[in-house]
Amino acid sequence: MDTDLVIRAQHGDEGAFASLAVACGDRLHAVAHRILRDIELAEDATQQALLAIWRDLPQLRDPARFDAWSYRLLVRACYAEGRRTRQSTPHLRLLPTDEPATADDMGSIHDRDQLERGFRRLSIDHRAVVVLHHYLDLPIDEVADALGVPAGTVRSRLHHAMRGLRAALDADLRPTAREVS
Amino acid sequence: MRTDRETTRIVRSWLDEGVTALPDRVLDAVLDQVPATRQRRSWWPARRFHLMNTYAKVAIAAVVVIAVGIAGLSFLGPASPSGVGGPSAASPSPSPSATPSPSQSASTAAPPALTETFRSSRYGFTISYPTGWVARPATHPWTTNIPDFMSTEGDIIYDPVLEGNLWIVVASKPLAGKSGTQWANDLPDMVAGLDQCGLHLEPITIDGSVGQLCSESSAAAVAAGDRGYIVLLYVSGDDPAVAAVYDREYFAAILATLQLTPEEAVDAPASASPSPS
């Protein structure tokens, strides 16, 4: 991230912040969507995170750490969105069935469905670690820095999460409409 | 049964699917709100106050006192006919004052009274906290390091205005073979993710049980029955006035209200609710 933009935005330059938001908005939204697994929630979380970034930017001591810091604010926003909608009714997504699927397609569809289920059973803490490490390719110490937890905690959460996802992948295939709760 | 490598490959491939672009309407909504959203100015590096040693705090306090004294003398100026420091002819009339909110109370010199009580049936304790603060009971058992503000594993009690900058967390778990002394001595490792404990621990008695207190931050660990407890008052160093009010003395006052009831704790999901005292 352009540290000059960060510094100018820290000093209240709204134009600089607009450029920052354009530059990091897609990335933050992609991460939020992968953590929350819901487009609308991800949009809300990204919006809240961007506003929090603007509000708290003067408190960022090292502009070079903007990316990691922005992920921390985004994960906080995801927590908030996750809590807000915890009581919402689960919805169903019907997988396409109008074309015959090959064996590979079926395996892939099954994996995606099982991963979706397994992932949704994880806490936001665990989801965030999986997404930052396996989607953004952040090393463990950078994930720890972004989330503000020790590296050991990140390793522990990652181990737990991946164990859960592997268990989900190994679960039996159910060939009907699948619940995505 | 898949291997770890195979699982990782599938998970990575799955994560690569899906949306990436943030819709323009969301970005527009953010930018529309920016002019009306005040930035939080920080004139003090975050958490620095916590990490300063006692001598540095005393030195800064002395500088502030001298500066205030000099400013006061220059304000009073030479003796006036009406007497030194006497009211001027155009003395301001008192203006009506609003009821203080939690954030306002945080910036006053006097720490707020601990008038509310939180009882945790999950972790087995009761504790008093300031009026206006909000209690957010844990919804998951404590399994990792000390729960932070966003965690669902600790009972969090926080200032609703300063939120993640001013809060208390309490949690407990079975000692699982550790002695109470071992538990308390592990305090620096437990708080490492949130705060620095300092160079040494100080013994402290909480509800009749001897535990340990960090020398440089407001964190304590104690064991009672078969459970280990941890308590932390997190104060961001962003605002030195807040850090000065919610200091270790105030933390000691909070700890003095802590009653440990390990026999009431449950490690399965349970409810907990704040109740006015």
The helix content of chain A is 55-70%
Rough outline of chain A: elongated
Number of distinct beta strands of chain B: 11
Oligomer: heterodimer
> Could you name the ranges of chain B where pLDDT drops below 50 across 5 or more consecutive residues?
42-58, 75-101, 103-107, 270-277
Sheet with the most strands of chain A? 2 strands, antiparallel
Which CATH architecture of the largest domain in chain A would you pick?
Orthogonal Bundle
Which class best fits the helix and strand makeup of chain A? mainly alpha
Gyration radius of chain A (Cα, Å) is 18 Å
CATH level 1 name of the largest domain in chain A: Mainly Alpha
Distance between the termini of chain B: 55 Å
Number of domains of chain A: 2
Please work out how many helical segments of chain B DSSP would assign: 9
Q: What is the CATH fold-level name of the largest domain in chain A?
A: Arc Repressor Mutant, subunit A
Proportion in β-strands of chain A: under 5%
Give the beta-strand count of chain A. Answer: 2
Mean of all residue-level pLDDT scores of chain A: 81
Apparent shape of chain B: globular
Q: How far is the N terminus from the C terminus of chain A?
A: 36 Å
| N-to-C SSE string of chain B, H for helix and E for strand | HHHHHEEEEEHHEEEEHHEE
